[in-house]
Amino acid sequence: MLITHDTECALSILVELLNTAPEACGAEQLPDLAALAGFVVRQEISEVDALTAADLAAVQELRGRLREVFSAGSTDRAAELVNAVVAAAGTTPRLTNHDHHGWHIHYFAPHAALGDHLAAELGMALAFIVMAGERERLRRCEAPDCARVFVDLSRNRSRRYCDSRTCGNRLHVAAYRARQRSAETVATG
User: What pLDDT tens digit does each residue of the chain (189 aa) get?
Assistant: First the structure.
């Protein structure tokens, strides 16, 4: 599957946004404008004007709608959800060349409200995944105590955890220790 640099960047922002939700990490990670501004800076989201309380509410609401795509029961349902997000954003595709990124497409109007900006960019990234028949790449972490999401961009679609250093490693260590205990029980039994 060919994923453009722009789409990969948008998918990265999407995952980071979805994993700021209380259901993903136990507490709201975007509780105020300062946190939202930090998110915008960390994710290098361009063409964002001064943030308002309305931006914060819109982004939190959008986050919930985008998260639904990851749990859609069918491709038809995923497409319906993505179409609703993109339509509500009023996409305005345009070619742009900024910040040494070369020519690429922005799907939002210049200086659009942050919610519309993210809805257009992230919605289109999801649209490309659904259109390519790659919806199974939109995953939830398989660790039983984790509700984070990720996009599996591995060649063989084998990624199982949101982060192999945390969730993956924790489960592998637990399995190893269980095998060790079992081997000790057999040896002493």
Answer: 678 888 999 999 999 999 999 999 899 999 999 999 999 999 999 889 999 999 999 999 999 999 999 999 999 999 999 999 999 998 888 898 877 778 888 888 888 999 999 999 999 999 999 999 999 999 999 998 899 999 999 988 889 999 867 787 666 666 667 677 776 777 776
Asked if residue 174 is part of any domain, the answer here is no
Cα pseudo-dihedral 34, 81, 155, 99, rounded to 10? -40
Number of domains in the chain: 1
State how far the Cα of 181 lies from the Cα of 56, in Å rounded to an integer.
Answer: 49
Residue 172 within any structural domain of the chain = no
Residue 99 maps to which CATH number? 1.10.3300.10
Q: If you search the block for the tokens 């990670």, which residue do you land on?
A: 29
